[in-house]
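User: tokens in, sequence out, please.
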């Protein structure tokens, strides 16, 4: 717990002036949690249908196997693209602005 109220006031004034940092963290965490929950929902969805089709329709096994790897690589490519893009934005438009 911060006992000095001026520290909190200074952090508030600094974030009030630096709206780019607040915007950056809002967009970054929005995309982070969006892809995080989207990936886990797809993860449970995939394994549900994976076991279902594996036990009842064996030829669907290969289809979902390749579909899973396609989505896996697409997800990580998209996630790291946004990760790089927002840190690029943060570095050049906020830190180098001074």
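Assistant: Sequence out:
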């Amino acid at each position: 717990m911060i006992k000095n109220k001026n520290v909190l006031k200074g952090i508030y004034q600094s974030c009030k002036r630096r709206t780019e940092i607040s915007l950056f963290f809002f967009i970054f965490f929005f995309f982070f949690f969006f892809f995080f929950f989207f990936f886990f929902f797809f993860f449970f969805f995939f394994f549900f249908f994976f076991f279902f089709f594996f036990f009842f329709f064996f030829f669907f096994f290969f289809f979902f196997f390749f579909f899973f790897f396609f989505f896996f690589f697409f997800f990580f490519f998209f996630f790291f693209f946004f990760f790089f893009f927002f840190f690029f934005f943060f570095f050049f438009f906020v830190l180098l602005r001074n």
